[in-house]
């Protein structure tokens, strides 16, 4: 049979023709190229050579793209799968940190040495206020963006893969702060005795581990007192202001939770039920911590939280520490890690154990005393 393949066939004049795609017109119409041979083998060899030449020519042209263009293409490609707040974060990091130093570098000149030098510089003196280096975790995020943009360019045949890997900045593990048992008792005694919208939010975080954005987005419609369940369906996120003519560069919106696992249902404990029942009937259909039909800014809410700490004589500690405190107390009480992971909204138990759970000295002592109960 004269036809040997979808791209190679024998012509009426006896020659073999191999066709290949060599681009598109500005209107999007495919452009084909052809090579010819006296045999199928010769036509196939010419086809492979033509394809390699075309690929090299395309890479040569696309290598003249600046890294800025690649970064913006990558960012636009990710808008479909990423939340608005995530894209805003990426855009900020790209515009403020990466483009000023790497944006004008041609893809043909971009290599691991160039990127690693940039990352080291950010670790040592990368703050925008010129007051030292950025945190290793922040620089790791910059590295992930750069790596993602390069992989995107390689997959789109806009550049060749790097021969050397980009170095991954070492993350410094810090023990995250939590409230001491004494401080927690004093704080809870005050909040239960003198309940308020701000205090209810603090109690919710201490007894359920919900994040500050989730607390500020929580409405009384999300609190199912009949079934004793709290539905976490929203969070407050900060995104870039879509109104270019607006005076504010960013705005707060009610968004979906941080991850898919963060959309969750949490049982209401017997400790929380009385205070939630009392306030639910006072201000129904409003946001829980704002006592209003408008949500409260997380920044404003955290300020009010710190004021309560000051009034209780407790050393200032950031609001997210309440989430750490909840997780640690659960482990100390013997709550199984799988249930705790789901309550916190984590994708897996490894995140729970590695990030939020702090083993106190009392807990370590208790665990070691178990060994003393065994006789040799």
> From the coordinates shown, what is the CATH architecture of the largest domain?
Orthogonal Bundle
Q: How many beta-strand runs?
A: 8
Strand order of the largest sheet: 1-2-3
Number of domains: 3
Major sheet size, sense and barrel closure: 3 strands, antiparallel
Unreliable stretches covering 5 or more consecutive residues? none
| CATH fold descriptor of the largest domain | hpI Integrase, Chain A
Tell me the series of helices and strands, N- to C-terminal. Answer: EEEHHHHHHHHEEEEEHHHHHH
According to CATH, the homologous superfamily of the largest domain is Intergrase catalytic core
Q: Please report the distance between the alpha carbons of the first and last residues.
A: 84 Å
Please tally the helical runs, counting DSSP H or I stretches of 4 or more residues: 14
Helical content (DSSP H or I, runs of 4+): 40-55%
Overall average pLDDT: 85
Shape: elongated
CATH class of the largest domain: Mainly Alpha
Which structural class should the secondary elements be placed in? mainly alpha
> What does the radius of gyration come to?
29 Å
Percent of residues in beta strands?
Answer: 5-15%
């Amino acid at each position: 049979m004269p036809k040997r393949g979808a791209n190679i066939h024998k012509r009426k004049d006896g020659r073999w023709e191999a066709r290949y795609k060599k681009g598109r017109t500005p209107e999007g119409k495919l452009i084909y190229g052809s090579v010819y041979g006296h045999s199928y083998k010769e036509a196939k060899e010419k086809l492979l050579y033509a394809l390699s030449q075309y690929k090299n020519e395309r890479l040569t042209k696309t290598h003249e793209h600046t890294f800025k263009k690649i970064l913006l293409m990558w960012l636009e490609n990710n808008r479909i799968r990423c939340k608005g707040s995530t894209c805003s974060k990426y855009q900020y990091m790209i515009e403020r940190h990466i483009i000023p130093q790497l944006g004008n570098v041609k893809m043909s000149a971009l290599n691991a040495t160039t990127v690693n030098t940039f990352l080291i510089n950010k670790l040592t003196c990368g703050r925008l206020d010129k007051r030292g280096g950025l945190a290793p975790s922040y620089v790791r995020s910059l590295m992930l963006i750069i790596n993602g943009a390069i992989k995107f360019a390689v997959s789109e045949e806009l550049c060749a893969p790097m021969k050397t890997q980009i170095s991954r900045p070492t993350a410094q593990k810090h023990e995250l702060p939590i409230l001491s048992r004494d401080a927690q008792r004093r704080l809870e005694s005050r909040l239960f005795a003198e309940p308020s919208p701000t205090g209810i939010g603090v109690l919710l975080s201490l007894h359920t581990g919900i994040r500050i954005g989730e607390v500020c987005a929580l409405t009384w419609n999300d609190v199912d007192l009949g079934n004793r369940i709290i539905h976490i369906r929203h969070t407050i996120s900060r995104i870039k202001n879509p109104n270019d003519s607006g005076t504010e560069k960013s705005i707060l919106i009610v968004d979906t939770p941080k991850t898919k696992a963060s959309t969750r249902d949490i049982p209401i404990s017997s400790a929380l039920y009385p205070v939630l029942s009392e306030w639910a009937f006072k201000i129904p259909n409003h946001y829980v911590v704002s006592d209003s039909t408008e949500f409260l800014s997380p920044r404003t809410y955290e300020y009010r939280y710190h004021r309560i700490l000051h009034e209780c004589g407790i050393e200032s500690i950031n609001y997210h520490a309440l989430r750490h405190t909840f997780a640690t107390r659960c482990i100390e009480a013997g709550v199984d890690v799988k249930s705790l992971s789901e309550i916190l909204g984590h994708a897996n138990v490894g995140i729970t154990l590695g990030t939020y759970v702090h083993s106190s000295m009392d807990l370590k002592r208790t665990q070691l005393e178990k060994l003393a109960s065994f006789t040799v």
